[in-house]
């Protein structure tokens, strides 16, 4: 079946794109408001797109009434945010941070998570996350129904046990991020495979 995106309404495009482009990693994004109050929200329109420069991208839509989400308002003003990767240990807390709360409500505290000082930005780092990237806003591309945010990573935190013995590569037995599929369906990275083993079929 083919779907002509030039003819579909935006709900159908959202349904098709989010149902079939997955799993998408989840960025749990922390920011601060003008009074320095903490904010956090999950975003699965997210990935890393470059290492030189080191760029991550978020896609954030406005609220139903067209008002910007707190994350966008905060990162526009402060120019900074922290992206946290999410594993099963903080999956429930991540969902709590996704609640639509009034500006100024601290979703990090509400979710029972711990905010600690980041190294290079004022937005807090969430201590329970196994991996976090401190970012400065590089560029924002504004569409009426989506702000595409390019963030430059200036500092990366990885919990010690998520690294291998030489502290160079990931320890896949410990670092197992979750990712979003369609609707409320997610996957964990607890069944990792080495595809090269499948490729032992002679050269093609
Ligand atoms: C797993 C998950 C992924 C989400 N991904 C996005 C996303 O990519 N973009 C977006 O605009 N909202 C996304 N949301 C919804 C926001 O997290 C939600 O609107 C939140 O209340 C925004 O909070 P804020 O106003 O503090 O920024 C997602 C929610 C969940 C639970």
Detailed description of the structure:
- With 204 residues, this protein is an alpha+beta fold.
- The chain has a single domain, classed as Pnp Oxidase, Chain A, CATH 2.30.110.10.
- It has 4 helices and 12 strands.
- The chain has helices spanning 10-20, 70-78, 91-97, 107-110; strands at 24-25, 27-32, 38-43, 46-51, 54-60, 80-84, 115-116, 125-126, 131-143, 146-158, 179-180, 186-187.
- It is globular, with a radius of gyration of 18 Å.
- It starts with 9 loop residues before the first helix and ends in a 17-residue tail after the last strand.
- The model has no long low-confidence stretch (mean pLDDT 96).
- The structure holds flavin mononucleotide.
- Flavin mononucleotide binds next to strand 3, strand 5 and helix 2.
- Residues 26, 39, 41-45, 59-61, 69-71, 95, 98-100, 180 line the site of flavin mononucleotide (FMN).
């Amino acid at each position: 079946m083919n779907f002509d995106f030039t003819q579909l309404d935006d709900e159908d495009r959202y349904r098709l794109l989010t149902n079939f482009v997955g799993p998408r990693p989840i960025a749990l994004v922390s920011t601060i408001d003008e009074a320095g109050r903490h904010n956090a929200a999950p975003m699965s329109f997210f990935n890393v797109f470059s290492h030189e420069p080191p760029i991550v991208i978020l896609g954030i839509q406005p609220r139903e009434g067209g008002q910007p989400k707190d994350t966008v308002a905060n990162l526009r003003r402060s120019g900074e945010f922290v992206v946290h990767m999410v594993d099963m240990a903080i999956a429930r807390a991540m969902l709590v941070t996704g609640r639509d709360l009034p500006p100024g409500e601290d979703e990090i505290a509400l979710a029972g998570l711990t905010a600690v000082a980041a190294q290079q930005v004022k937005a807090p780092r969430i201590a329970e996350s196994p991996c976090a990237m401190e970012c400065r806003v590089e560029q924002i591309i504004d569409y009426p129904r989506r702000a595409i945010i390019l963030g430059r990573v200036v500092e990366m935190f990885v919990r010690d046990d998520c690294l291998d013995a030489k502290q160079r590569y990931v320890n896949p037995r410990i670092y197992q991020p979750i990712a979003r599929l369609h609707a409320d369906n997610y996957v964990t990275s607890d069944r990792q495979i080495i595809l090269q083993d499948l490729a032992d079929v002679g050269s093609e």
